[in-house]
From TrEMBL, chain B:
Heterodimer of LeuC and LeuD. The gene is leuD. This is 3-isopropylmalate dehydratase small subunit. The keyword Iron-sulfur does not apply. It comes from Arthrobacter ramosus. SUPFAM superfamilies: LeuD/IlvD-like.
Length: 484, 200
């Protein structure tokens, strides 16, 4: 019988097969092709190596960047928060001591770890990629098996360049059809999570398939794979194709010359065989999909933007009912309120989910020639210093600034409350990030997860909106952005 | 890692599903560079509410957390496990754990025991009717006892063995270093290296 893509990648990395079969088989020992490191989940791992007198086995397969703690303003000044500054300095010291390549704040390659890897061409099809960050699933967009790990595992990879991993189950997410204008990859993944739930992917590697996925760009595929973890999945991936190769070709660490040809020949084998079977298959219709938005405090609590805040009584399951009641209370929402009547205070465009160049372009296209609701604050945070430079070369920074948005330096920013970009208690945010957990964007902050174009349209109207809700843009203002 | 065979301690009923790791420990506490001292950070936002279960005696002295389904979702932060352990928890019972949280627990000697939701509900009732009731978690027999409830739990054999023996993962893997070296020799040359750095 044939193999799924995930099984092929897995099998190609087995250093040592675990004994036994089925659910209680011993884990396989897998080789790790790329280890991404950042300041938050690494200090205790480096310390563990030091205490045990162990070297870092493969510095040449390891790369570090600073992203979670870093400010997005005044990056040329010392970091004001002392504990953040200490953590960043600790990473710098550790990378120096163990010979790890580091892209620090101010460096042209600094940025969110999941934006940096792909843009350098370090993420390639058929690889195993790990990082002490759950959104490592992002790299699955290239047909890599990419997993978030804890700090003990970070130390294990540093010491051995391997991980002990238990067998997984496979789930196909079939998305057939054509997305309508204003509907994007973010809406696909929010709809998938709403459908299967935050635990629905638990134990599974998801493979996103179907005509709607094939039609997506790499940036869009990364958005989808990024949020696989929000469905509880161990990883999410998309088979590589010409779109993947076109994205990779010429990137600094992409293979060159004959190596490129050899790589493509191998990459072409990385697809699920016709006679392979998935443990579970889930179908989603792209033709009828609408912009999606979350109303609650976990990413599975999402609905179409055209709908209203649900009634807890509508949930059959007692736990879901309780969770909905609690979420509505935290979110300050009344059941039955149309989602589009919900007014926001802040719009955040950024995070490892939606901070790549296409995300910025899509949002800029919506706001170009339009005015921001004066009561709304909008933060635009490119995913990496390189994305920022690219956007500025296209004049996107001017579009955002003229609109009245804040144009920031690269980092995780308002996705999580670890740096100065945070919501105030009770503040409501339309956010292109990945988690609407209580307090995630700042203590007491209220998060609605949305796509970049919904974020942009919301900044115009002040209430949750899709681009189709907007009046036509003024012609005169649009002429200022011809640089793009 | 300390060996785990059985543990008996006060059970804490946390009647909530989807307890994500941002709730277990908010990001602001992740700036520390130590592996211990996170007890103050555990559920820090919820602990500001006087009615929160860990603010009530005798639950504040609890060591077995009995939680709703999908415990430990979200961020991979192992700090969530460190915070639970530093507070004094030895075991968490739930009908479904997020994979990364479960993995992290196994590395740190915190027992993540998977029970049927019906059994979780029975244990919740015992703990709510008689606060302070102890829960006995027996990893040898894979059972939980609480009041008149006796329930089996699931844990994979490998993690169970490592917990029972108190084994260090890295040490185990390095016993197979020859296999790693042999694998490295077979890797295709087109696979990328981070060094030397190529910059665009």
């Amino acid at each position: 019988m044939g193999k799924t893509l995930a099984e092929k990648v897995w099998d190609a990395h087995v250093v040592r097969k675990g004994e036994g079969e089925g659910a209680n088989a011993q884990p396989d020992l897998l080789f790790i092709d790329l280890h991404l490191v950042h300041e938050v989940t690494s200090p205790q791992a480096f310390e563990g190596l030091r205490l045990a007198g162990r070297p870092l086995r493969r510095p040449d397969l390891t790369i570090a960047t600073e992203d979670h703690n870093t400010p997005t303003l005044d990056i040329d000044k010392p970091i004001a928060d002392l504990t953040s500054r200490t953590q960043i300095q600790t990473l710098r010291n550790n990378c120096k001591e163990f010979g790890v390549r580091l892209h620090s704040l101010g460096d042209a390659e600094q940025g969110i770890v999941h934006v940096v890897g792909p843009q350098l061409g370090l993420t390639q099809p058929g690889m195993t990629v790990v990082c002490g960050d759950s959104h490592t699933s992002t790299h699955g967009a290239f047909g890599a098996l990419a997993m978030g790990i804890g700090t003990s595992e970070v130390e294990h990879v540093m010491a051995t360049q391997t991980l002990s991993l238990k067998p997984f189950k496979t789930m196909a997410i079939n998305v057939e059809g054509t997305l309508r204008p204003g509907v994007s990859a973010k809406d696909i993944i929010l709809a998938v999570i709403a459908k299967i739930g935050t635990g629905g992917g638990q134990g599974y590697v998801l493979e996103y398939r179907g005509s709607a996925i094939r039609a997506l760009s790499m940036d869009a595929r990364m958005t989808i794979c990024n949020m696989s973890i929000e469905a509880g999945a161990r990883a999410g991936l998309v088979a590589p194709d010409q779109t993947t190769y076109d994205y990779m070709y010429g990137r600094p660490h992409a293979p060159q010359g004959e190596e490129w040809d050899a790589a493509v020949e191998y990459w072409n084998t990385l697809h699920t065989d016709h006679d392979a079977t998935f443990d579970v298959e889930v179908d989603l219709d792209a033709d009828t999909l609408e912009p999606f938005v979350t109303w609650g405090t976990n990413p599975g609590q999402g609905i179409s933007l055209n709908e209203a805040v649900p009634f807890p009584g509508d949930f059959g399951d007692e736990n879901a009912k309780l969770a909905a009641e609690r979420a509505l209370q935290y979110m300050g929402l009344e059941a039955g309120t149309p989602m589009k009547d919900i007014r926001v205070d802040t719009v955040f465009l950024g995070s490892c989910t939606n901070s790549r160049i296409e995300d910025l372009r899509a949002a800029a296209d919506v706001i170009r020639g339009r005015e921001k609701d004066p009561k709304v604050r909008m933060l635009v945070v490119p995913g990496s210093a390189r994305v920022r430079l690219e956007a500025e070369a296209e004049g996107l920074d001017k579009v955002f600034k003229e609109f009245g948005a804040e144009w920031r330096f690269a980092g995780c920013s308002m996705c999580l409350g670890m740096n100065p970009d945070q919501l105030e208690p009770g503040e409501r945010c339309a956010s292109t990030s990945n988690r609407n957990f209580e307090g995630r964007q700042g203590k007491g902050g209220r998060t609605h997860l949305v796509s970049p174009v919904v974020a942009a349209a919301t900044a115009v109207r002040g209430t949750l909106s899709s681009p189709s809700d907007l009046e036509p843009a003024s012609v005169s203002a649009s002429t200022t952005t011809d640089a793009a | 890692m300390e060996k785990f065979t059985t543990h008996t301690g006060i059970g804490v009923p946390l009647r909530q599903s989807n307890v994500d790791t941002d709730q277990i420990i908010p990001a602001v506490y992740l700036k520390r560079i130590t592996r211990t001292g996170f007890e103050d950070a555990l559920f820090s936002a919820w602990r500001k509410d006087p009615s929160f279960i860990l603010n009530q005696e005798p639950f504040n002295a609890g060591s077995v957390l009995v939680a709703g389904p999908d415990f430990g979702t979200g961020s991979s932060r192992e700090h969530a496990v460190w915070a639970l352990k530093d507070y004094g928890f030895k075991a968490v019972l739930s009908s479904r754990f997020a994979d990364i949280f479960r993995g992290n627990s196994g590395k740190q000697g915190l027992l993540a025991a998977e029970l049927a939701q019906d059994d979780i509900e029975l244990i919740w009732k015992v703990l709510e009717n008689a606060p302070g009731t102890e829960v006995k978690v027996d990893l040898v027999s894979k059972t939980v006892e609480c009041g008149n409830v006796v329930a089996p739990f699931e844990i994979d054999d490998y993690t169970r063995w490592r917990l029972l023996e108190g084994l260090d993962d890295i040490g185990l893997t390095l016993q197979h270093e020859e296999d790693i070296t042999a694998y490295e020799a077979t890797r295709p040359s087109f696979k990328p290296k981070t060094l030397p750095a190529r910059i665009q």
